[in-house]
User: What shape does this take?
Amino acid sequence: MSYNFRLFFITFYKSFFQTKGTHAQLTRKRISFLLLFYLVWPVWGIIIWVSFLLDNLLFPGYKSQPADKPLFILGNFRSGSTYLQRLIAKDIDQFASARTWDIFLSPSVTLTKFFSVLLSIDKIFGSPLKNMFVKFDARTLGRVDIHKISFFDPEEDENFLLHKWSSFFAGVMFPFIEIFLPYIYFDNRLTPKEKTSIMSFYQRTVQRFLFTKHEQLHFLSKNPSFSPKIASIFQHFPNAKIVYLVRNPLEMIPSTISWLGYTWHVFSDPLEKYPFISEILKFTKHWYDYPLDILSKTDPANYMIIKYDDLIQKPEETIHQIYKHFGYTMRDTFRQTIKRSVFEAQNFSNNHTYSLDEMGITREQILGTYSDIFERFGFDTNIGQNNVRIIPNETSLS
Assistant: This one.
């Protein structure tokens, strides 16, 4: 479970010495980010890995922590996975889902215990540290557009793998997509040894997370980027349950291009408004085809395929079906929580407009590339007008 120093140093070298003509050109914004990143991330990384070692000495029991019937939500980006995760995560009597805080600040048992003691002391004095951090959260992550994020909300635990530097998400901060392609096609492009190392590390982080305070709960994971890892998930979590969300490509593609374009512009000054469109079209097709192929060979009792429209239009019914299918208990208190949460989401408005022309792709291109997906799921091929998609409530639903 060693750190991926090779990829880390390649990333470092390219960031400073191979930027000409790339989306990572050394502008003022880019240099500022690189200086901040390389001043903070290596130091914090050392602290985290030391805490992992301390876990083995102080809390070795985490290694035997079971993960009973973990629920993994997969699919392409912008297919409703965040919405579904955050609804189910409200069932705190049954599920535990890693928050941004858990992922980046306390991924180890040692750090979780440390922060717990620190916050307990802070509470005695009126919680000044906590209040300061809440304000920091609102002024930083709270201002992120398109995808609502907070240190206190459930998030994609693919980010755990950044601590090993073996994640496609590192390519968001370092837009050299060619060196991160193996992680985008995880099961098909990485060696068995690499896959085992990465998934064993991830499995340990899940055990650490559950060991700290969620021993009896089901682990809830939302990771579109786990779609190309689906075979590895079943290998390392044999009793895993999978919900695969599928959305009309005419909606998913422009939304994904827009979202990834936005994130690349946060850390860099790309040469184009929407970088890597051809690569996005290729891997989104793989993220449709590969998981669906693996699931077709899997016991139906262990997975569900759900359409985005069914989730959005009938969220209460959809969650009830998920619980019934996998044998989770639906409590009355959670039913009421779901009703309130659905009402709040449906009354939240944050529209985004996407132009296919501006992205340099056509409706015909999408219809042709994903023809089998349209045919299999009966998706509407006439969505949109004048190459423009308007997706309501997407910040809260994706």
